[in-house]
Prior knowledge:
This protein is an alpha/beta fold. The protein is built from 11 helices and 9 strands. It has 2 domains: 162 residues, Rossmann fold, CATH 3.40.50; 118 residues, N-(1-d-carboxylethyl)-l-norvaline Dehydrogenase, domain 2 (Orthogonal Bundle), CATH 1.10.1040.10. The strands form 2 sheets. It has a 6-stranded parallel beta sheet, with helices on both faces. A 3-stranded mixed beta sheet has the order 7-8-9. Helix 7 crosses helix 9, helix 7 crosses helix 10 and helix 10 packs antiparallel against helix 11. The N terminus is likely disordered.
Amino acid sequence: xxxxxxxxxxxxxxxxxxxxxxxxxxxxxxxxxxxxxxxxxxxxxxxxxxxxxxxxxxxxxxxxxxxxxxxxxxxxxxxxxxxxxxxxxxxxxxxxxxxxxxxxxxxxxxxxxxxxxxxxxxxxxxxxxxxxxxxxxxxxxxxxxxxxxxxxxxxxxxxxxxxxxxxxxxxxxxxxxxxxxxxxxxxxxxxxxxxxxxxxxxxxxxxxxxxxxxxxxxxxxxxxxxxxxxxxxxxxxxxxxxxxxxxxxxxxxxxxxxxxxxxxxxxxxxxxxxxxxxxxxxxxxxxxxxxxxxxxxxxxxxxxxx
Length: 306
């Protein structure tokens, strides 16, 4: 690690140097919004070609994690899972500035938070456990809900970043290592994934019974059984708009397995979450892994529905 004194916060403008590691659905939107807000934003992605379009929005696309974080005030990680975050942050370590803030927004699961906290201590970083609720559209609009835990005395370091990527920050605790934000994220995602699978399974049953799915949607529409998420996910299926994904099947499967593991660790059996993981896995095996998680619908069929 280097102790870099240049490229730090411009105290006159409040603008930061931010390194974004991971530019998938969420990370790309975050990097773009940070650059548009005037922050010096550098981004790295394992597949560089997927990050190239960010240059048009003023983001410097880096060739390595170290290049992306060199001299950064804030490092934001939005990668696939805990092992990926550990690997990439270790690669970035030589260029990290002592005392920089690390906003860790990847959904990593309960166990991994402790490993990341240990790495942050070793690297001299101020860790914020900060997963987000929301998908592609709110990410692009900077309207995510940020669930965050971290020391109150250091929060001013990351507030300018959190205010750009989210409409609201919900602070859940002082100690990022305790994983209170990640725990809340897993609870919220258990509901989201269950609903997404329920939508797919219900529409699959309609298909199998020869019922017009719109008849079902009209029957519950506006009543206590209706919800915006049902209508939104059903529309993606019925209108064939599964790409680009708002929340991909493969990511949903990963999160479902993290939820099941967390439940087992604390003596909670999560049969629905386990079934969700298996449905997502079947849909991915059928070739729907990069599609929106509404494509779990296809897991109800051994062959493509007619």
